[in-house]
Amino acid sequence: MSNVAIIGAGHAGVEAAFTLAKAGVKVTLYSNEASLPYFRPRLIAVAFGQSEPAAIAMKPSAAYEEAGITIAHEAVTTFDAAARTVNGCAYDGVIMAQGSTPFRPPFKGEGAEKVATLWTMADALAIRERAQPGTTLAIIGGGVLGLEAALRAVMAGMQVTVIEVAPVLLGGCLGTGGEATLRAALEAKGITLKVGCAVAEIATDGVVLADGTKVAAEVILCSAGARPNTQLAATAGLSVGMGVTVQPDLSIASKVYAAGDQARLPVGRPVCAVMRAMRMGALAARNLLADLQGEPCQPWVEPVLPLFMKVESVEFHTAGICWEADVVEERVDDGTNPLIWKSVLKRGDAIIGLRWVGTRAGFADWEKQLVR
Question: What DSSP character marks residue 37?
Fold first, then answer.
């Protein structure tokens, strides 16, 4: 029986672990957290009191035991790719799946140290203690996670302001009409939006913007994206940049692979997404199995993933290509409801993308018409 180590117990690591275990491989899953592996995006619900820590576990402890997966709750401090040793223990194969960490800009000001991030269970529990009704919260970042945090904070009774340096929310994936509709829905929930506003400094009682105005805040949360973890790989002498450099089949060395946010392919850009990480973890596991058996490996094919969010009545859904400029957008709803937007993106006669805000009604039918 082969013996494999997986460094990292996030979405990619857990998917890889169960893929290998089903094939009869003995798996040790290294986790630097004391809790069972959990769905990281659901930490937001834990932080603002809508969910409990145990409810967001990916699998119960019995599932790991039944699969024969050992969870080692210890940080990995030493790794030798050539010898395939992890913390001094030798393995037949290794998968690196350490994911990413939140990006925290170098904020200036006396209150800079009080800026929180929401990436671990410890982060969520710390925020939960302060998420009291009437407490003011400033969220720096208008991406999916920042907006969900804003909505869940409002559900907890907090007074929320979202600060986004870009001129649009969500990187512009909803287009002008869809974004305006989403803004209206967020503002209807009582969220104050400061879009196109840079942070000058963090004061002890709030956030000072570049134009001199101050957003009062007792709690400040930074949700400005993430960066792949590279420290262990760099220490091990591996090629790193915006992630750990892998070959098209996700290999780093003989019988060593990387998956998830941490894996940096020769082309493309780093993408932090749960669905992508899980698919990549499964492929890394299958390719490692093939490598162990002397069989050919399969290349990674980058998927086009949906972007979506739903918190109570506020929601948006996208599919296909929603970022490119050389497309024509056609609205397909009647426009009578100011909180609903439905549009298709076309290149010629081909439908290549969808933008839905405020509802999912009809989305699946249009999605069948997408040209992939």
Answer: P
